[in-house]
Amino acid sequence: MTFWRPLLTTALALLASLSEAEPYRWDSLAIGGGGYVAAIVPSQTERGLIYARTDVGGAYRWDAAQARWTSLLDGVSEADVGLLSVDALALDPKDSSIVYMLAGVPYFSGGKTAVMRSTDRGATFSRVTDVSHLFRANGNGLGRSNGEKMQVDPGDSNILYVGSRANGLFKSTDAGASFQRVGALPVTTTPNETGISFVLLDPSSVANGVAQRVFVGVSRFGSVGPNLYRSDDAGASFKPVAGAPSAYIPQRAALAADGHLYITYGDGSGPHGDWKKLDPPEPLTAGQVWKYQVASGGWANVTPKGINRAFSGVSIDPRNAKRLVISTVNTWMPQGGKNAGDRFYVTNDGGRNWTDVVERGFAMDTSGVSWISAYAIHWTGSIEFDPFDTRAVWVTSGNGVFRTADIDATPATWTFTVKGLEETVPNVAVSVPGGPLLSVIADYDGFRHQKLDAFAPIHEPRLGSTSGLAVASSNTAVVVRVGGKKMYRSADTGTTWTEVAGMQGEYGTLALSADGAVLLHSFRQPDGSNRTFRSTNFTEAKPVWAAVRGLEGGPMRPVGDPVNAAKFYAYDRGTVRVSTDGGASFAATATLAPNGSSLVRVAPGREGDVWVALKDGGLARSTDSGHTFTTLPNIARCGAVGFGKAMANAPYPTVFIWGTPKGKPLGVYRSSDAGASWLRINDDAHQFGGPGNGEFVMGDMNVEGLVYMSTVGRGIVYGMPADAPKSLKPRAR
């Protein structure tokens, strides 16, 4: 097992690292949710114990005392970054301290899939079983809001069922240490590649120490094949459930104490439509809710009258078998005024009559996260009663988690409950000397941060997904950001913004000359090639854009010299390209290792001091404006490099890397002597899967020792000396 070290080993490694450097504390920059939370899973046996799983940001446990979420997978290594996509989560009905996670995604970590077992509520994982040879998960795939497809047997805690996406049903009899395929279920893959939607074990059927009755939902229309199976002999045999609805795909299911099984259906796997060429298509725009009488086999359509929408979430009040709450999914109906999203329904009579909770009265409490007020609760794959206070209900959304303390209130107030749950994909962050930290992220623009733990204002006007951000290094009032087909500039360090007209291309990355007079926009063309355009009058009403010579071809991210406004630098798959004419043209000046990061860094306040992270090629530095480079002899690997405020009495800015000094483990390191020596400042419990898509690690220009790192879906994480304040203002020396 390479994912988690035993707890003792981790503790010893932490002590060793702290003996080398001052203690660091790690957390995520306060943004407030932002990403898709696929499911809420509450414990039925312990008050206040609630889990959330996400598609790219790992899993979280609710800390009721602190009213915040605790991240559970920050120890994921860069090699195992795919395990931050959690496809299913299961709790042991007999022992609330035990939690399982099914994790993996096809495009990271070679598609590695693991079943992880924790005996301390997810604080550590004592067992990680690699099941890649048996089946593969896709925690960021369609159907990720279905579930749960993993369940612990209510009669025997050693038995664990897992439904796969392409290989059928699997069973463990040794608490997840090993798995065997349940051959009695005649299901492997489905046309939508989602496979099994859910597995549900009936606790009332426990006999001979195990649950005899097992239900399995299959993500396909009944016209393709049966989509609901039942076993009455602990999985030894399965039969299609007679009379099961065939017009839609089962999403989720819940068993009531009075012997009814409730199932939500939609015409797709969710949480949104599938645009692949499927027959029949899966738009996820329609669906139903059905009730199945387990003993008699009778079916009843209990869909709310007049509502032909896709449904997903379903939960039953443990104190009242006839009281249910359900949610639509991928439905864009009015929700509290100008926003549109999903609807929630409550019944007190087993589905004969429903109350539309949103239509009756909807209010949103933003909890200080101002940006969320412009968005709705949507893609609500999961809705759950709090088992110990069933007035309270939790829902998941494409932007986080919401909770109402009283679903029967008029209006019901839905509180954005995301403190500590930071699931965003960061693209760029820039710490402005004497100013704020500016960020841009996927989906939700980016922010102007003044404190690490305070929700910051979003950039206005909004762009949505924002890919590029640049600050003029010697004229920091000048800032530009880009996303989609729009670009905005600021003359007051991101406080206010004005649109830049006539931009070429879309999305892309940005570079500004040191004085802020020249703007470069590099972007990918439809044919996959890279182009860069330049403007010297982008602040005017009709700016002129001209193609830059010498940057055609691969994906490059030019950067301006921090002192000389005529110079720009770029790294092109092994070739360093330099401009000395204000970015109008670039010429090759040096050759380095070919597979490094395109994110070139320049040392603040120093002309021509250029650093390139070369990944397996190490770390290279030039002090002559990119004409010659020296590879640092003490760095074996470097995935990212960045700079921060110089430490006290240090003559050079602090250098931070995500890398491997020779003889040391991969991690975050800092150097106060221009790379001559390195101190590790993170530990194995704070790896966050590495820098991910944003590929950056960088220091704060106002607070000594403070470092930021991008992640694949955990937001922007930061590490800082344990005694440092959380303000981003300089400390007096």
UniProtKB/TrEMBL annotation:
Coiled coil: none
Organism domain of life: Bacteria
Signal peptide location: 1-21
InterPro entries: WD40/YVTN_repeat-like_dom_sf, Xyloglucanase_GH74
Keywords for this protein: Carbohydrate metabolism, Glycosidase, Hydrolase, Polysaccharide degradation, Signal
The keyword Cell cycle belongs to this UniProt entry's keyword annotation: no
Keyword Hydrolase: yes
Family: Belongs to the glycosyl hydrolase 74 family.
PANTHER family: OLIGOXYLOGLUCAN-REDUCING END-SPECIFIC XYLOGLUCANASE-RELATED, XYLOGLUCANASE (EUROFUNG)
Name of the protein described by the UniProt record: Photosystem II stability/assembly factor-like uncharacterized protein
